[in-house]
Design brief:
Elements: E1 9-23, E2 34-51, E3 56-61, H1 77-89, E4 95-101, H2 111-126, H3 133-143, H4 147-152, E5 155-159, E6 164-167, E7 174-180, H5 187-198, H6 210-218, H7 221-227, E8 229-230, H8 233-239, H9 244-252, E9 257-260, E10 267-271, H10 274-284, E11 289-295, E12 301-302
Parallel strand pairs: 1-8, 3-4
Antiparallel strand pairs: 1-2, 1-12, 2-4, 2-5, 5-6, 7-10, 7-11, 9-10
The structure holds cytidine-5'-monophosphate (C5P).
Amino acid sequence: MPDALPSEVTVRAPAKINLHLGVGPVRPDGFHPLATAYQAISLFSTVTARPADDWSVTCSAGEGIDVTGVPLDDTNLALRAARLLAEHAGLDHRVALHLDKGIPVAGGLAGGSADGAAALLACDRLWGLGAPMGTLLELAAHLGSDVPFGLVGGSASGHGRGELVSPMADTGRYDWVVLTFDEGMSTPAVYADFDALHEGNGVADPEIPDALVKALAAGDVRALARAVGNDLQPSSLRLRPFLAEPLRAGLDASALAGLVSGSGPTCLFLCEDADHATRVAGALSAYGRAALAHGPVAGATVL
Ligand code: C5P
């Protein structure tokens, strides 16, 4: 006899950072070709799915995380993920989703994408589908450029518009200070500024630097610090000039590297180890909320 289906399933999915974000010229579909190295870090969104008579989504959040900007209607990414999976599987099932968000909203950390990845896996298990990873990745790519990485986690390359993800060899543990701010930033606005900055300059085909690939394979934090980079950072700084100050303060406080996370405004500071990160965080708390996180961590995981 098959196992009974669970009455609820909870899945947690990690925040992503871009160790390197190479951005090419805008494509006809409005997206930008990327060559990026993702890393999943230890800030998480947790999604619980329960069978229900109709679709719904509710939301709670960790301390200091403002969820007023999270839509609780049909546009919610976790809800879209659940509906997409039901449609794909030809099921008439509905779920009530609860999101417990530990990843700041609109911060450049793919918090919404983590919700989407977690909801896909949670509903797959709730409905006993056992869909192959390849199927979940395809559905994830429909939902957003960063959603497939939320399923894969670890350290991984991202190509296409970011949705084509392959694991990268990584033997290290990296300690980060993650500096977040009250006000989020619109990803399309940052890409639009990138286009304005590069107009006519024919941005070269982006690539992940060899030095970064080698640094991860060797688990060499200092070599990684020299190889990180973000092509969107000049635009994030143009839209939020105040970010220059904490980026400088982090380096003055001995962080090995400081960079903007994705489209921003979150700033990341790479440190030697957890003790070093604690000291660097102390120097940054005047500028925003300075959290400690480490990577790489696993992608979406059933709890
Ligand atoms: O894929 P996702 O929905 O997360 O993308 C949000 C927005 O970010 C897109 O509408 C687009 O403006 C921008 N984007 C882009 N190129 C990418 C990924 C995202 O221009 N590779």
